[in-house]
Specification:
The protein is α+β, with helices and mostly antiparallel strands and about 130 residues long. It has helices spanning about 1-10, 50-55, 105-115, and strands at about 15-25, 45-50, 65-70, 80-90, 95, 105, 120-130. This is Expansin-like EG45 domain-containing protein.
Length: about 130
Amino acid sequence: MRFSLLLSILAPLASADVGTAGSWSVPYTPTRCNGNSQDQFPSSNLFVSVSEGLWDNGAACGRQYLVRCISSLPRACKSGTIQVKVVDFSNNPVGKKSAAATMHLSTTAWAEIVDTSKGANKVNIEFAQV
């Protein structure tokens, strides 16, 4: 039973893409997906803004991705995978986003996969749409 559960969680990452992630801090609104609506944010606060390659002219809004940190300098990756929701386009000038990246993770999402005490501002990630 445990093996099948683990397999169902990791299977989507078997055909995952590789990219980069940076952090994204408040303010988070207005977003390109749903403006100032607070309902767009999942209760877990695990959400992202995505770059042009994933944005798909706004069709990315609401998409869910499994994301895990695979490497960084300094070594700041935590083990584990998180599920995030797309709520914004990274080119939206709202909020404080780190350097250009495939995804910018909310402060909560960033802290789930990156050891924030290490000072990394960009990490390599593996991600797959669910």
